[in-house]
Structure formats: C-alpha cells, structure tokens
Automatic annotation (TrEMBL), chain A:
One of its GO terms (cellular component) is plasma membrane. This is ABC transporter related. The keyword Membrane applies. The keyword Coiled coil does not apply. Keywords: ATP-binding, Cell membrane, Membrane, Nucleotide-binding, Transport. SMART domains: AAA (SM00382). It holds the Pfam family ABC_tran. One of its GO terms (molecular function) is L-phenylalanine transmembrane transporter activity. PROSITE patterns: ABC_TRANSPORTER_2 (PS50893). It comes from the Bacteria. One of its GO terms (biological process) is D-alanine transmembrane transport.
Length: 254, 341, 287
C-alpha cells in the first residue's frame, strides 16, 4: 500500500535516514525497530509528511506523495500518533475526539456564524465518529471524563481513537506502548490487531520486543539510518546482522 | 441553570445597568470596559483558543481607532462611514503581517508580534503628517444619530453610548460564541494543543491560524473604532504593549479559552482598579504579581477552573442521570440545547 | 570622513550596550527555553539602583555599578526561583505571561519609588577624548571598553571554568545534563544572576549618555529580542554579532536616512530576516 523508494533525509551534515526502501503491506501489522537514534521517528516523519525527504520517493497506492505535507497525508488517509498526545485537559474525552473527523468536513466561518444546516449535520457526524472510535478502543465509559483525569494507557487508546476517527486507511503508531505496563501492553497489542482486522493497515515503531515479536506480521530493522534487515519475526529473530546491532544488547524492555 | 439562561441573565443585567445607577461616571467606566472586553474577545480567539500569543493586538486596536480618527477629523468623513472601515483596515494590514508571522512557532511568534507592535506604535508616533504624532487626534465627532422605526437615536449622552457599546459587545459575543462552539472552533483548539498533532489530523495550519488572526484583529479594530467615538481623543499610547498586557490579564484572570472568562475579566478588573483608585497608575504593582500567581496556581483562570470542577462532578454522576442531559460543547459554557445522534 | 568615523564610534557604542543586554537574554533562553520578557526591567533596575546610590548616598560611580550588578543579579536569581522555576514544566503561554507580569511589576514599582520623570545619572567621565582625530565622550569610550571586557570575561568563564562548562552543557541538553548529576536548578539560577549583572552593567554604562526612567528598558529589550532572534536564540556569538549589526545599522541609519526611523531599524531587519530565514541567521541552540 505504501511504497518507499530510496528514502533519504539529511539534516545539514547528518544523514538521519539513508536510502531506505521498503513496502508497508496493506492489512498487516508492519513494525519498524532499531536501536535508539536509528532514525525510526525521522522515517515516520518523512512518510507522515512532517519532513521533506532529501531524496527518494513515497508512493501511496501508486500515487506519488513524496512532497505531501502532513495535513495532506491525513486527507489521503494516513493518520499518525505521537509519543505524547496533548489533549485539551479542560474538556471531556469525547469532546477531544470530535475534531478527529474534522478533516472530512467542509464547514467554515460562514457556516459557524450562520449556524447552517451543514454545520449541524457535520457536527453530528463528527460526534458520531468520535463515539464510534471511542467505543472501538473500549473506552466508551470514559466519554464524559475530563481529559486531564485519564491514565497513561487510556491516553494511548484515545490517541488511537483520534487516528481512527479520521477514517484512515493507514495508521502510523509512534511507540504506542510507551510508558505502559506489561499487562496494558498486551491489551494495546490486541487493540492493534483489532484495528487491522477492521481494515486499517498499521505501521508502528516500538521498543518492546515481546510485543513486536508477537504482534508484527512484518518487521523492518533500521540502524544508523539504514535498513539492515526485513522480514517476519522469525526471520528477524535469527538474523545475525540484527542480533549484532541490536538484540544482543540489553536493550529489550518489556 | 443552563447556559442560555446564564447569558440571558447577563444581558438583562447589562441592559438594566444604567437604571441601577444615577452616576454617569459609572456608565463611562462600564462603557470603556465593554469596549476593551470586545477587543479582549479578539485576543482570546487567537491566543486563548488558537494558542498564538499576539503581542501586537493593541496595535491593531489602535489602527482601527486611528482609522476613524483620521477619516473623521482630517477628511470630514461621517463617523459611521469611517467606523465601517475600522474593522477592515486592520484586517487588510493583518494579512501580510499574519502571513509573515504565523509561520513562526511558539515564542518566536510572540517575540515577532512584540516587535510588530512596537513598529505600529512607533509608526503612529512618528508619522505625524498622518497621525498627528505624539500630540494625538482630538475632536473626533460623536457618532451621528441613527434613524430607527422609533425615531432618530442620538448618541450624545453617556447612556446612549453605553447601550451602543453594549449592543456591539453583545453582537460580538454572539458571533464569537458561534465560532468557538463550531467545528472551526475545535480546529483552533486542536492547533493550540499542538501544531504537529493538528496537522496530522488534516488541519491546514497556516490557513486556520490566519483566519483566527484576521478575526481577532477585526474585533480589535472594531473595538478601536468604538473607542474613537467614545473617548473622542486618540494618542499613540493606545498601541502600546501595556494595553495588550492589560487585555492579556483580563483574559487570564477569567480564563483563556473560555468565553465567559475574558468577558468577566475585562468587565471586572477595571472596576477593581476603580475601587483601588490610588493604584491606577501603579496598578501593576498588584496586577503583576497577581498575573504570576494566577499563571502558577490557577492557569485556567477563574471560569476555567470552575468549569473544570463542574465537568469533573458531572463525569462522576451515574450514566442514567447524565443521559438525560443534551450533549456538551467543550468551547462554550454550558449546554447547547440540542441533542446529537 | 569625520562624520563617517563618528558614526562608526556611535555604532560601536550602541552595539556594545545591545551586546551586553542581548547576551544575558540569550543565555537565559538557552537554558530555560523561555524568552524572559522581564529582562528589560533588570536593565532598568540596574540603572536605578546605581542612580540612587550615587545621588542619594554619594557613592562612587564604579562602586555603584558593582552594587547595581550585584543587586540585580540577586533580583534575577530570585525571579528565576520564584517565577520561572515553578513554571518550568508548562510550555506555551504561561511562562511568557509570568515574565510579563514580572516586567510590569518592576516597572510600576520603579515608577512608584522614583516617579516617571527622566533622571540624569551623574558620572565622573564627562570629558572628551581623542580617538583617530575625532573627539568622543569619555563615557562612550568607557562603555565600549567596559563592554568588551565583560564579554571577554564571559567567554573565558564559559569556556574555561567548570561552572561555565555546566552552563554550556545545560544549554545544549537539559535532560542529559540532569542525568549527569548537574544541578540544573542551581545552574539556571546562576545563569539568571549573570544575565541580570550584565544588563545592570550595560545600563549603568549607558545611562550617563542616555537618561534614567522607568520605561527605559522596554525599547532596549524589544531590540534585544530582535537581536537574539536574528543572531540565533541561545547563541553567544549570535548575540554579539547581532548586537553590533543593529548598533551600526541604527547609527548609520539615524545619520544617513532619518533619525526618527532609527528605532524601527532593528525591527524591520528582524521582519526581513525572519521572513527569509525563520530560524535566525546563525544555527540556534549551541552556546
């Protein structure tokens, strides 16, 4: 679904991502792993439209989206979560999610001031989408809770819900299980599986090896900005280059 | 009590105010406060809701005021004709400024606008042939009488001026209420939460920030035009950064990112300052530390804090009770009165 | 030719003041990532403390300057502790607003104590000195010399002492520094103190040429911000370069273009540069 060809990103003298080519496969859980500083988040930023690549191409369902900015990518169905999600703390969880579907609406200033039919309909739609997304991630009971009052794991789920509310076809998850205990990690992994079953393609960055090995259909390993291996969890687990660079060290968390 | 009732009550109070006091001076204070309340609403939109700290806000208010001043005094325009431009001229000026400045994030935007504010202030002070410089513009005419079905309404009394200003404030509040309660308002809040996150939700940062910015300076300019017709004398100080700080304080005390907050702040604080009359020129000896304490201990302002408490209490109520109530809008105080699917 | 040289010297004078003020500002930004809008009030406080000591207590100019620098250093450290430290976790508006609250408080206090009028600061250096065939006020020479001495001292401090190195470390990577056991809090307070001392010194050096009044900091500080943004936030060489650039630009602009417009020059330059290069002229961050 997402084809990446020779992607490179240079920041001044530093090459953060170097000639990486891969494919994010539709309907699968695609994982990107690698030691700290390997360029994983930069890679995400490139495909998400936050950075402009120095070289290479990105094709989404055959269409060249290399130069698309993040909001454009979102419109094309590529949603993204961040390592920390800032919510409007003074508002309810549901309220925070309503803006998730905003990109698919067309109401503007005129609609707002006149209270037009379109605005009311679109607000209802966004609200419905928000509810559905919240329900999907299993947090309907938190609908009226203040965003400031939810736990870290719940925050992660809300971040997923936001991405889902955009009606995305591909969701990029940046360390979805960061700061979450092992039990909760399993829960999040199940949620990710559920997302894929419902038709969303997932690509994630994670450090928790147990989770990745169990969850991922396909893994790509980055080191120093370069792709050093790619394949199924079994293949990666036994790949000498990977073990060398990464798994051998006391890096594995969960 | 729900929001509709609340706002209605406020409006009633506002309408009744001149009847509750014999003192013209009180009317003057309230009118002036209302004018700045209107401007503060604008600041609240770009800063409170969209998270961009525009330190040049007072400069735009001054531009609106000077538009009226220059056109009426130097070019003999009738007041209302000039007033029609008081909101538009700042928007026209705001467009290139916004395009330049809104590319900057966070602190840089604040610093840049601080400098823009200074440029505006210095410009007004030095461009004597246009603005009369430091001497200021005097003798702005009273707004002409407007024809109504009930006969001409003239504005040469404090009471009439008060109602005029109240009318504009009410209108401004109503429009702002519509804006912040809509999907557009939520877009602004998303931007405040974080540029990156907002962009990843498909929000075009530049377009939306610019919209908020232009709306905010429209409010500022209109308030400036009212100021010109009310005070009838202008000096470059109106563009000074201190005025923006005043409005920032009103916004914060009440609660940035709410509607009621800045309104109460803008109306209430000048009264406080009145009672502490001796403080007038030195008001910041009190208000300075107050701002600091506020920002450390009550960052959401009074109204924001109250709303937080209220929402918390509501969150812990059993679902059946809550299900009776129509859905909430996050960006205005209280209920909307409509049920959504 | 004479006039040209005169403008060079003027530019140097102005630039020196701006450099000192901008240096303190950029150091604090490098450490805290917050623009200290109250910095201009430190500048002003320095001038007033010295003024009071000299006129009311008859202190010697240099002693007064020392005392001013010391007291503003203390003031700045206190500000760091009570205003900025509690807000170190908040981002966005709140630290900026707190800084503004502090600024207004200090300005209003100064006005309450000394009134809003302009005061003359007495100085023993009222004579003239010949430099390259031009007569130039002694005070100006003092200013430039003093500024360069202070800047050299600062550089030495940052590069050659352990404490200085910790400031640099903190500016480069706050979390990393904390992990290495550096007391980020104390270092931040020290940086504030240094910034305050620099601002006070600048004020006392410049005040005899200019005047002393409560609002004297506001124009200077706004220009200082323009300078550090142009030069790159947190960059010491950037602050120095920026200060000199603006100093010269204002001096030449005032003489050859229009003296009314000279105050605008810094801001116009800022607008132009930021429009073309939003991150400033020098790469940001590293001291």
């Amino acid at each position: 679904m997402l084809e990446i060809q020779g992607l490179t990103k240079r920041f001044g003298g530093l090459t953060a991502v170097n000639d990486v080519s891969t494919c994010v496969e539709k309907g699968k859980v695609n994982a990107i792993i690698g030691p700290n500083g390997a360029g994983k988040t930069t890679f995400f930023n490139l495909i998400g439209g936050v950075h402009l690549p120095s070289a290479g191409r990105i094709l989404l369902n055959g269409e060249d989206v290399t130069r698309c900015r993040a909001d454009d990518m979102a419109l094309r169905g590529v949603a993204r979560t961040f390592q920390s999600t800032t919510l409007f703390d003074l508002s309810t969880v549901l309220d925070n999610l309503i803006v998730g579907h905003r990109l698919r609406t067309r109401s503007g200033l005129w609609d707002a001031v006149t209270g037009s039919r379109r605005l009311r309909d679109e607000e209802a739609l966004c609200r419905a989408k928000a509810r559905a997304a919240l329900d999907f991630v299993g947090l309907s009971h938190l609908e009226r809770r203040l965003a400031a009052d939810i736990t870290q794991e719940e925050r992660k789920r809300v971040a997923f819900a936001l991405a889902i509310a955009t009606d995305a076809q591909l969701v990029l998850l940046d360390e979805p299980a960061g700061g979450v205990n092992p039990e909760e990690t399993v829960g999040l992994a199940l949620l990710i599986r559920k997302m894929v079953r419902s038709g969303i393609t997932v690509c994630l960055i994670e450090h928790k090896m147990d989770m990745i090995m169990q969850l991922a259909d396909k893994i790509m390993v980055l080191n120093y900005g370069e792709k050093i291996a790619e394949g199924t969890p079994d293949e990666i687990r036994t790949n000498p280059a990977v073990i060398d660079a990464y798994l051998g060290s006391e890096h594995a968390e969960a | 009590m729900n929001a509709r009732t609340g706002w209605g009550l406020l409006l009633l109070l506002g309408l009744a105010f001149p009847l509750l006091t014999d003192n013209d001076y009180h009317l003057t204070v309230m009118s002036s406060a209302s004018i700045f309340a209107l401007a503060t609403l604008g600041l609240n939109l770009i800063t409170g809701y969209t998270g961009q700290f525009n330190l040049a806000h007072a400069g735009f208010m001054a531009i609106g005021a000077y538009t009226v001043g220059i056109l009426t005094v130097d070019h003999q325009w009738p007041f209302w004709a000039a007033f029609c431009l008081s909101g538009l001229v700042p928007v026209v000026l705001g467009l290139p400024i916004g395009l330049l400045s809104l590319r900057l994030k966070g602190h840089f935007f604040a610093i840049f606008t601080m400098c823009v504010g200074y440029i505006l202030f210095l410009g007004i002070e030095k461009w004597e042939s246009l603005t009369h410089g430091a001497v200021g513009i005097i003798g702005i005419p009273v707004p002409e009488a407007l024809p109504t079905p009930f006969g001409d309404v003239s504005f040469d009394s404090p009471r009439a001026l008060y109602y005029l200003v109240l009318g504009f404030l009410t209108l401004g509040l109503w429009v702002m209420h519509r804006i912040v309660g809509s999907l557009l308002g939520r877009t602004f809040v998303a931007i405040r939460n974080g540029d990156d996150l907002a962009e990843s939700l498909g929000i075009n940062l530049m377009r939306n920030k610019l919209l908020a910015f232009l709306l905010s300076v429209f409010y500022a300019g209109t308030a400036g035009g009212l100021y010109a017709g009310f005070v009838r004398f202008l000096s470059p100080d109106l563009a000074g950064v201190e005025r923006t700080f005043d409005m920032t304080m009103y916004m914060l005390i009440g609660g940035a990112g709410t509607l009621l907050g800045p309104l109460l702040g803008a109306l209430g604080v000048p009264w406080l300052a009145q009672y502490l009359q001796f403080l007038q020129d030195y008001r910041f000896i009190v208000f300075g530390p107050l701002l600091i304490v506020l920002v450390i201990f009550l960052p959401d302002g009074i109204v924001g804090w109250v709303r937080g408490q209220w929402l918390r209490r509501r969150a812990s109520q059993p679902a059946s009770v809550v299900a009776q109530e129509p859905d909430q809008q996050s960006t205005s105080v209280g209920l909307k009165g409509e049920r959504h699917a | 030719m004479d006039m040209f040289l005169q403008q060079i010297l003027n530019g140097l004078t102005l630039g020196s003041v701006y450099c000192l003020v901008a240096l303190g500002l950029t150091l604090v930004y490098g450490i805290l990532q917050v623009p200290n809008f109250a910095h201009g009030a430190f500048y002003m406080a320095g001038a007033f403390v010295a003024f009071q000591l000299m006129s009311a207590l008859g202190w010697n100019y240099w002693l007064a300057m020392l005392a001013a620098a010391a007291s503003v250093a203390a003031l700045a450290a206190l500000a760091g502790r009570w205003v900025f430290h509690p807000l170190r976790k908040s981002s966005g508006l709140h630290p900026m607003i707190a800084a503004i609250g502090l600024l207004l408080f200090l300005e209003a206090s100064a006005q309450a104590i000394w009134g809003a009028d302009f005061r003359r600061m007495p100085t023993p250096y009222t004579g003239m000195v010949e430099v390259a065939g031009i007569g130039i006020g002694q005070q100006r020479v003092l200013l430039v010399a003093g500024a360069f001495v202070l800047m050299a001292a600062l550089q030495l401090f940052l590069k050659r002492t352990v404490v200085g190195a910790t400031i640099v470390a903190l500016a480069q990577d706050r979390e990393g520094a904390a992990l290495m056991g550096i007391d980020t809090h104390r270092v931040a307070m020290l940086t504030f103190a240094i910034s305050g001392a620099l601002a006070a010194a600048a004020a006392v050096l410049y005040a005899p040429i200019n005047l002393v009044y409560p609002a004297m900091g506001s124009l200077v500080i706004t220009k200082a911000f323009a300078i550090i943004v142009i030069g790159g936030m947190g960059s010491v060489p950037g602050a120095i370069a920026g200060g000199l650039i603006i100093g010269f630009a204002e001096s030449f602009g005032a003489f050859y273009v229009s003296s009314d417009a000279k105050d605008l020059i810094a801001f116009v330059l800022l607008v132009v540069i930021l429009s073309v290069r939003p991150q400033g002229l020098f790469t940001r961050g590293v001291l």
